[in-house]
Amino acid sequence: MKIVDTRGQSCPAPLIATKKAIKETGMEEAFQVLIGSQNALNNISRFLKDNKAGFSVTESEGFWTMTVSKKGR
After folding, report:
1. What is the spatial distance between Cα 34 and Cα 70, in angstroms, rounded to a whole number?
2. Per DSSP, what are the bridge partners of residue 60?
3. Phi-psi region of 47 (alpha: psi -120 to 50; beta: other; left: phi over 0)
4. Closest to 67 measured CA to CA, from 54, 17, 7
5. Residue-by-residue DSSP string for the chain
6. How far is CA 62 from CA 4, 8, 21, 38, 39, in A?
7. Which residue ranges form the domains of the chain, and what is each CATH number?
8. How many CB atoms lie within 10 A of CB 48?
């Protein structure tokens, strides 16, 4: 599974990296985004909801791991 590490990056860099990963991911595939700030988490979550991508989030050791799946339509 591809991992996109955006920890330590300020917005909009994490969102841009997530958009790029979505474009590079095939249908029904998944990838993970490592996120280091609440602001980036909120922005990426909003973007994924708006684009109907599935995702789940876990928090550990001060950062979030978001697993994103690109669903076929």
Report:
1. 17
2. 63
3. alpha
4. 54
5. -EEEE-TTPPTTHHHHHHHHHHHHSPTT-EEEEEE--HHHHHHHHHHHHHTT-EEEEEEETTEEEEEEE----
6. 17, 12, 23, 10, 13
7. 2-69 (3.30.110.40)
8. 21
**Mean pLDDT, each 10-residue run in order, the chain (73 residues):** 95 96 90 97 96 94 94 60
Predicted TM-score of the model (pTM): 0.91
Tokens of 64: 């979030």
Residue in this structure with the two tokens 């991992």, named with its chain if needed: 3
